[in-house]
Amino acid sequence: MDKVNIKRLAEELKLSTSTISRALQDSYQIGAETKQRVLELAKKLNYQPNAHASSLGSRRSKTIAVVIPEVFDSYFALAINGIEAVAQARGYHVLIYLTHERLQLEQEILHAFQSGRVDGVVMSVSAETTSTAHIQALRAQGVPVVFFDRAADDIDTARVTTNDAESTYQGTCHLLERQCTTLVLLSISRHLSISRQRIEGYRRALAEHGISQRDDVIDCGQDPEANCELVKNTLEARPGIDGIISTVEMLTESAYQACAALHLRIPHDVKVVSFYNARSAAILNPSLTTISQPAFEMGKTAATLLLKALRNPKSTLVAENVVLPSVLTIRNSTTFVG
Fold it and tell me: Could you give the CA distance from residue 213 to residue 206 in angstroms, rounded to a whole number?
């Protein structure tokens, strides 16, 4: 049996080969009805595209990059699944790059992309990212960039985030309603807008409840052992602390370990709320009250925006700003103990 090619599809449908090609690439230039006819015939005749020839003809790699700080946090694993679900359905490959929270590595990765290795980038910036010249340089080469979760404030492009200030506000209010009086918030780099927003929501809740605190935002790093020691020292120095909010999933472990080392019982002595997406939240001892981000949907949305820009070079990503709400789930780590 002869291999079915674009010319055969064009002859069957009485369309030009260029129309067939654009329809198969989901081009914005082709109407939905025509695309449907082409796709139905391609499926019926078991048409298999020549990926190499297609790539050469369009000067595209049919590959997108996902640049993230780390994979310890289950949020990023879920987001990658969402990105891949969209990309693979559109015939794109996905390459994953880790910056390990280092600006220099992020710069090297994006510099390599300028050679045409990828068609577009979905990224969440590192904790060290204060300069964005490397992101601007990549975009100047015509490579679209979409942010998710962590965005660079001075880059005008699409971003997919969650309601960080509001969800932290809700988590803080929950602790205060459970009669916590002295709170600390565990954070990472304040260079990140996401960290600043979570601190803002925390501060707003305290202010509305008439609580004024100092030195209550604890800046943690990337070393779990050092973070545990930092939290333990904080709890020892301020024995009145009865509520902890962790703004990063990996810091939850530090909070639990520090409390255990000091023989502080959760939730009797200290109550804990954390940004946390892993299913293990329900089986921790005690089970963890969480603020869960819609990670899979955020990944899907970010990939959809990027592929939309790749299909239509005339489209702009500047106006695209999607905010998906997080969910507060109450479990035993904040149970009221009378």
Answer: 8
CB atoms within 10 A of CB 226: 12
Q: Which of 134, 162, 132 is nearest to 150 (CA)?
A: 162
Domains of the chain: 6-49 (no CATH), 61-162+295-324 (3.40.50.2300), 164-293+327-334 (3.40.50.2300)
User: What are the tokens at 332?
Assistant: 């035993």
CB contact at 8 A, 182 and 153: no
What is the C-alpha to C-alpha distance for residues 273 and 245, in angstroms, rounded to an integer? 5
d(CA 212, CA 210): 7
DSSP 8-state assignment for residue 130: -
- The pLDDT value given to residue 1: 43
Q: Which residues pair with 245 in a beta bridge?
A: 185, 273
- In the chain, which ranges are E strands? 63-68, 93-98, 120-123, 145-148, 159-162, 183-187, 217-219, 243-246, 271-275, 289-292, 321-324, 327-329
pTM score of the predicted model: 0.81
Residue 305 C-alpha from the chain's centroid = 14
Decide: 109 and 67 in contact? Cβ < 8 Å.
yes
Q: Is the per-residue pLDDT at 311 higher than 90?
A: no
* Mean local confidence (pLDDT), 185-192: 91
CA atoms of 293 and 324, how far apart (whole Å):
8
Q: Give every CB contact of residue 112 below 8 A, 6+ residues apart in sequence.
A: none
Contact by Cβ (8 Å): 297, 82: yes
Q: What whole-number distance in Å separates Cα of residue 159 and Cα of residue 144?
A: 12
For residue 29, give both structure tokens: 């230039």
